[in-house]
Amino acid sequence: MIAINDIHKVFNKGKANQVNAVNGITLNIKSEEFLVIVGSNGSGKTTLLNLVAGSVIPDKGTIIIDDNDVTKLADHHRSQWIARVFQNPISGTASDLSILDNFRLAAIRTKPKGLTIGINDQFKQQVKEKIATLGMGLENKIEQSMGTLSGGQRQALTLLMSVMDSCKVLLLDEPTAALDPRSAEVVMRTADKLIADFKLTAILITHNLKDAYNYGTRIIQMSEGLIINDLDSTKKATLKQNDLFDWFG
Ligand SMILES: Nc1ncnc2c1ncn2[C@@H]1O[C@H](COP(=O)(O)OP(=O)(O)OP(=O)(O)O)[C@@H](O)[C@H]1O
């Protein structure tokens, strides 16, 4: 599904502050695999995600998504395959617009799975039904502006809007880092369910080792722009939570 071959990214090349952020990574991510990336600060996790998303273009190496060579494609040209959710719940939606209007915008931008813009009442009903699947009671608040919702509610809706389009890959860059523990748990469970329901290939970056342990079908650890641990689903199943803490010495 995603084939990353000997990818390199250097920032500030040739200057005193040169950083080899990604240092020759080769990684094959299978369709419907849910890959979790852990690693200390500055180990290159976000740069790797940016390379997959196309917001950073590599100095060397190739990235193939679904048999398409996207190595030089800018991020907006990869949106047919990729949806991305960021740390900040505010970044994915328009605060002043209602939940319904945010879904309308998302529907115009893409062709959401199971949503036809159609006549107004029909669209509204479909949005309500989709939101009801989150189990947060937000289906009764669709006329409320996005800005009045909590970070967790907003992030769950952002996730739903992201995965409803035709994307096959979901990139999650510390999606719960700005949330309280309870909201973080709801958002992670929502993400996990949506990934399974929509049969997505997903990559999650997290500093939360409990989430890294509980979610995903494969886990890698990065250090200094390289992968230093890689456990597939079979090996991950035998992993103990304490083993993960040991990775960070
Ligand atoms: N646009 C940039 N310009 C210069 N240096 C950068 C840029 N983006 C990242 N870096 C550097 O590349 C290295 C890897 O950064 P990256 O954000 O990928 O790490 P990370 O593992 O995601 O870290 P964190 O866990 O702190 O988010 C760091 O040293 C960072 O300062």
From TrEMBL:
One Pfam short name: ABC_tran
Domain ABC transporter: 2-249
Entry's transmembrane regions: none
Cross-referenced Gene3D superfamilies: P-loop containing nucleotide triphosphate hydrolases
PANTHER family in the record: ABC TRANSPORTER DOMAIN-CONTAINING PROTEIN, IMPORT ATP-BINDING PROTEIN
Superkingdom of the organism of origin: Bacteria
Organism this protein belongs to: Mucilaginibacter dorajii
Keywords: ATP-binding, Nucleotide-binding
Source organism phylogeny: Bacteria, Pseudomonadati, Bacteroidota, Sphingobacteriia, Sphingobacteriales
Database matches in InterPro entries: AAA+_ATPase, ABC_transporter-like_ATP-bd, ABC_transporter-like_CS, ABC_transpr_LolD-like, P-loop_NTPase
Name of the protein this chain belongs to: ATP-binding cassette domain-containing protein
GO MF entries: ATP binding
